[in-house]
Amino acid sequence: MYETLKPAAPDKIIALIGMYREDPRPNKLDLGVGVYKDEEGRTPIMRAVREAEKRLYAEQTTKTYLGMAGDLAFNAAMIDLVFGADAPIGRLSAAQAPGGSGSLRIIAELLQKARPGGDVWLSDPTWPNHVPLIESAGLKTRTYPYFDAATGTVRFDDMINALRQAKAGDIIVLHGCCHNPTGANLTVEQWHTVASLLVEKQLFPFVDLAYQGFGDGLDQDAAGVRILAAVVPEMAVATSCSKNFSVYRDRVGAAILLARDETEANTAHSQLLAVARAMYSMPPDHGAAAVRLVLTDPELCADWKAELEAVRSRMIELRQKLADALKRQSNSDRFDFVAGHRGMFSRLGLTVEQVHRLRAEHGIYMVDDSRINVAGLPDDRLDELAKAIVSVL
What total of structural domains would you count in the chain? Predict the structure, then answer.
């Protein structure tokens, strides 16, 4: 059986981790891996999550299954977190999923059921795993222009012109905030323009909201989703708690569906659960239970929001400091866009050759497309990093 198989292509980020680990240079720097790191290079457990886990340990009396939808109170709390006080509750349904990737995959499977072989439009660039997640469900992918590497800005007019070519029923994948890999976001005004186009062309929005709270704030980062929800008849949102609750390995996410009415919402939800049943049966409970406790306990929620705000503020400060250091070293404003980007990532606009030189000559590791993890920046070595970047230009 297995002799018919060929080795899978190595994951580039995993390969990068291996190269970094084997590099003996003491001042090497890892800017590639997409997890939040604090000042000491750790990915900490958040205070409120730690307290919630203590309560679970003390109070939980069983490990039996919760059902295909997972923790229903968690699902309700996630709908509230994403859609806010004005959420059209009767038209919304949710299912807990194994992380943001699990949410993306079960939604893709549902959309394949609803529109077999349908076209899914992805931003250029997008998170690399979007393509295999969506195509493995049987859907076809197309791209629309998004990022101008020379200026570090969104090619918004090109994006809109491309999406005008989409046909009714096509699925448009949008990053809700903190665009991965570029860090360049749509403005509120641009979200309104996109929403009008989706309604006009009868397109279906599929929003990946993996970084809520990492950009401009919890409500601000959900603005795009809420603008769409106010005008579109249907949509899907894949959410992740990996980053904003720092529960990466616990795989906590939610797939949220907005339907035309309550009847269609119930039907779509039943089919979503059927997809989950066929793929992994039941979602893991522990991480979602901890998140649910945090979101539903006022004291824990307040502490979580305070720690999340500190994380967000630190990344904005690091962005500004790196932009300033790059300006000093290059004597130009070429990299000023880094300060205006949001979330963990920015794409610096370097060539693959320049990225490889940084690795070989300076021990600085980043993905070949020059995406850097802002949270991995060393507070005390930014001028050194900027000097190295400028040296390979």
Answer: 2
